[in-house]
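User: Let's play a game. I give you a shape written as tokens, and you guess the letters that built it. Ready? Here's round one.
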């Protein structure tokens, strides 16, 4: 086995070594674009092979792009794919979700290290991750500390992902309404597949849709929670985790003090404490120390303003969307009209959560009203938080744009959020991102109306385009009817939507997109 693995490693090094060296020689932006493009392209081959020719090459490419970009659109029913293909698909989803998170974390470090996205990738990696730094030089010490912090951030990302997906899989194993004939292995795989897909906001399901959970409250709550946690971004999750850990530290500190006080009172009364008393006190102190150690090594949370924007923005969008869907679909017998009030509320909430990036649905989107379609389209376009698995232009971008427009009306010069002046660069990036996104989407919609064979399908095309760009995965039923040329366009759309318009633009032009913004002393907020 060892000989086999050694030989396999050498073979893969021979095949992919030149590509990896080529990527290292490019800028960060071009390295990201090439690596994601190569992943999608090479990833299509295992999918094609695993289906023994039942899946065309273009469909394999489309499915590979949808998985790596955690979109969820599929030209074929996922339930009809072989088990090995489903395993490959969910591995791609996990790799795509984690990959883009790590990439955005590293890009975020460009600002700290003073580098640009045009920096050669090899130099950037050396600058950020080089562990062989001499301790004599003060500047090099600072870089070493920054290196350690980045490594801890990445480790935190993997720890959080594995922990949440493990908890989600266990919960779905018990709560998901599996088929009565399903074996233990089938239940476990279905739960794991659904959990990974939900947390990475991919929208793939081995059941093709989640209509069977329409009346099952626990399943929808677990899946909604996974979608929200994956979509708000890791910096916010880490911020919340540190907040919770501080509460636990205080609790165990009080328990330790109470235990020591109890032992002292016993000693004063002349009573000998038993082993259980000592054990309780020592365990309280030991647990407190372990939590403090873990909390000190947990890093990567965003600043409080960005965290507030994402949390409060998410609450407004999710609950505002849920209330709107409930009111719009309340009497629609084809969607939620025939459900009980509690089921109406829960399904409206579930669709609102999924609309922002996940693509899961308990009802057929073809049966909902036109105003609800427009609402879902807007929610898809906004998306979730940066440095998460969500797509769209991001909540931070949307909030900055709203505040900027309010300033235009009130003639204010600076954008302020929660009493803090926002960086001019962040405002400029938000405006340019919105302009680039809307312009690109309009162009793609125009091109697709030329290629699409069926007439009077503009609403379906617009919905599908924004769903693909925002990596949501919702569809009004045209995915399996589009031509090969259209599938290529959708692949490119998912690709650009996943890695970001700015990254693609910088990779193509080699020029930064936020130069000449003047003096910039405001608070930097990550957008796009």
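Assistant: Ready! My guess for every position:
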């Amino acid at each position: 086995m060892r000989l086999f693995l050694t030989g396999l490693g050498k073979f893969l090094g021979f095949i992919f070594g030149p590509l990896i060296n080529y990527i290292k020689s490019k800028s960060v932006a071009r390295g990201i674009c090439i690596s994601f493009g190569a992943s999608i392209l090479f990833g299509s081959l295992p999918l094609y092979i695993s289906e023994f020719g039942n899946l065309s090459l273009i469909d394999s490419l489309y499915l590979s792009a949808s998985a790596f970009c955690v979109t969820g659109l599929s030209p074929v029913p996922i339930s009809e794919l072989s088990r090995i293909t489903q395993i490959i698909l969910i591995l791609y989803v996990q790799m795509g979700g984690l990959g883009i998170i790590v990439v955005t974390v590293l890009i975020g470090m460009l600002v700290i290290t003073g580098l640009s996205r045009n920096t050669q990738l090899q130099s950037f990696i050396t600058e950020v991750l080089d562990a062989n730094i001499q301790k004599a030089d003060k500047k090099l010490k600072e870089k070493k500390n920054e290196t350690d912090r980045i490594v801890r951030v990445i480790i935190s990302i993997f720890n959080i992902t594995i922990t949440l997906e493990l908890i989600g899989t266990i919960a779905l194993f018990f709560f998901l309404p599996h088929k009565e004939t399903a074996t233990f292995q089938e239940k476990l795989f279905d739960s794991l597949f659904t959990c990974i897909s939900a947390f990475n906001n991919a929208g793939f399901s081995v059941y093709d849709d989640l209509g069977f959970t329409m009346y099952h409250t626990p399943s929808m709550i677990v899946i909604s929670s996974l979608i929200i946690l994956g979509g708000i971004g890791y910096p916010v999750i880490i911020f919340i985790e540190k907040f919770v850990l501080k509460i636990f530290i205080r609790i165990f500190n009080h328990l330790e003090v109470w235990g020591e006080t109890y032992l002292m009172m016993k000693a004063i009364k002349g009573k000998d404490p038993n082993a259980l008393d000592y054990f309780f006190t020592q365990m309280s102190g030991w647990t407190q120390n372990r939590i403090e150690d873990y909390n000190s090594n947990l890093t990567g949370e965003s600043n409080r303003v960005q965290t507030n924007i994402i949390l409060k923005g998410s609450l407004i969008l999710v609950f505002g969307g849920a209330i709107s869907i409930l009111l719009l679909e309340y009497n629609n017998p084809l969607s939620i009209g025939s459900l009980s009030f509690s089921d109406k509320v829960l399904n409206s909430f579930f669709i609102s959560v999924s609309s922002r990036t996940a693509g899961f649905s308990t009802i057929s989107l073809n049966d909902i009203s036109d105003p609800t379609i427009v609402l879902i389209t807007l929610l898809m376009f906004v998306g979730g938080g940066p440095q998460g698995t969500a797509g769209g232009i991001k909540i931070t971008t949307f909030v900055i744009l709203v505040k900027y427009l309010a300033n235009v009306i009130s003639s204010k010069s600076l954008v302020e959020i929660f009493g803090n002046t926002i960086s001019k660069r962040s405002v400029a990036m938000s405006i340019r991102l919105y302009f680039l996104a809307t312009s690109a989407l309009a162009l793609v919609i125009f091109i697709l109306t030329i290629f699409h064979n069926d007439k009077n399908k503009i609403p379906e095309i617009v919905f599908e385009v924004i769903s693909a760009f925002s990596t949501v995965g919702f569809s009004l039923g045209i995915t399996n009817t589009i031509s090969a040329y259209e599938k290529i366009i959708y692949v490119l759309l998912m690709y650009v939507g996943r890695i970001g318009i700015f990254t693609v633009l910088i990779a193509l032009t080699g020029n930064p997109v936020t130069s000449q913004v003047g003096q910039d002393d405001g608070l930097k907020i990550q957008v796009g």
